[in-house]
From TrEMBL:
Residues 167-225 form the DUF8180 domain. The lineage of its organism: Archaea, Methanobacteriati, Methanobacteriota, Stenosarchaea group, Methanomicrobia. Pfam families: DUF8180 (PF26551), Mut7-C (PF01927). Residues 2-152 form the Mut7-C RNAse domain. It comes from the Archaea. This is Protein containing DUF82. It comes from Candidatus Syntropharchaeum butanivorans.
Length: 233
């Protein structure tokens, strides 16, 4: 499973990635870029950052890094799905607060917690309601009211991923298609030349150039929609 280190501008991604089960740490207050790089390298973490220069430095020195461009959390999570294949389903294995492991509580453990004063734990929880506790910070989690919001976000993210996938297929199709069209344009250009129609030939030459440019842009867009975005441009 991938592990992450986030820069300080990506704070909201932290709890979501942990909810999805990924071991995710966050830059400490005042931590230098160099420290982030070293932690990523030594702990085998992928660096996620809004800072393009930092991402490029990491890559040059052999650390996996992805530049995050979106400002909103849904956009940011969409980017890590597209570029790294992050799975957006809640796993309930990791504490969203401290990143430690969480474990499911059985009836006796729940009863013990109630006696300790955790009075929000119902006396006999419905059978389908599960509780977990963090082995590190002790925080108790359960499928409460916020759970519906988590499920909605998961669905939204899956829909967005499918839209991105369809866009990728369209781009692939258009690129293939424009290569076919380019062939015909070049042929027409030659024919016009053979007929001595220089003005027609010149216009077709422009069309070939424009089509080559368009194909280049489509290829660039496709590259950005693929895994491990190069981060260029
Ligand atoms: Zn915890
Ligand atoms: Zn066509």
């Amino acid at each position: 499973m991938m592990r992450f280190i986030l820069d300080r501008m990506l704070g909201r991604m932290r709890s979501w990635l942990r909810l999805f089960g990924y071991d995710t740490i966050y830059a400490e207050e005042g931590e230098e870029d160099g420290t982030l790089f070293l932690r990523a390298k030594h702990e085998g973490r992928i660096l996620l950052s809004r800072d393009k220069a930092l991402v490029e430095r990491c890559r040059r020195r052999g650390v996996r890094a992805v530049q995050i461009r979106s400002l909103d959390i849904v956009g940011q999570l969409t980017e890590v799905m597209i570029h790294l294949g992050v799975d957006p389903s809640p796993k309930m294995i990791r504490c969203t607060l401290c990143n430690d492991q969480i474990k499911r509580l059985n009836k006796d453990e729940l009863e013990a917690l109630r006696e300790e004063g955790y009075d929000y734990i119902p006396v006999s929880p419905p059978d389908d309601r599960e509780f977990w506790q963090c082995t590190g910070c002790g925080q108790v989690f359960w499928e409460g009211g916020h759970w519906e919001n988590i499920r909605k976000t998961e669905e939204l993210l899956r829909r967005r991923y499918m839209t991105a996938e369809r866009l990728r297929h369209k781009l692939e199709h258009w690129i293939e298609h424009s290569e076919g069209h380019l062939e015909s344009y070049r042929k027409a250009m030659e024919e016009a030349g053979d007929l001595g129609l220089r003005d027609v030939q010149d216009d077709l030459k422009q069309a070939v150039q424009a089509m080559e440019d368009a194909t280049g842009w489509l290829m660039s867009a496709l590259k950005r929609l693929k895994m491990e975005d190069s981060g260029e441009g």
